[in-house]
Write a structure and sequence with these properties.
Keywords: Metal-binding, Zinc, Zinc-finger. It is built from one helix and five strands. With 82 residues, the chain is of the alpha+beta class. It has a five-stranded antiparallel β-sheet with strand order 1-2-3-4-5, covered by helices on one side. The longest helix has 19 residues.
């Protein structure tokens, strides 16, 4: 999962040097928004993104971002990922 501008994205397609992310609410709202980033081996920089057909769920995206940060710190440290 990825968070950008208050929206959650899930990994949709992976190419050699690019990752295409799809809005995590694509089924719920029929949202066609996509976000293109460089690959994880590179910088992970946002290349382009399209607009959403719904408002962002800020609380959900902040919670997911916090969970991801905790998991990353657990992987790099001595704490359990659980």
């Amino acid at each position: 999962m990825s968070v950008y501008n208050g929206f959650l994205y899930s990994k949709h397609e992976v190419y050699e040097n690019k990752i295409v992310w799809r809005c995590s609410d694509f089924k719920k709202f029929a949202c066609k928004s996509r976000c293109h980033t460089t690959s994880e081996d590179e910088t992970g920089e946002i290349l382009k993104y399209t607009d959403h057909s719904h408002a962002p769920n800020v609380a959900k995206s902040e919670a997911k971002g916090l969970v991801n940060e905790i998991k990353k710190s657990a992987e790099n440290g001595q704490f359990s990922t659980r």
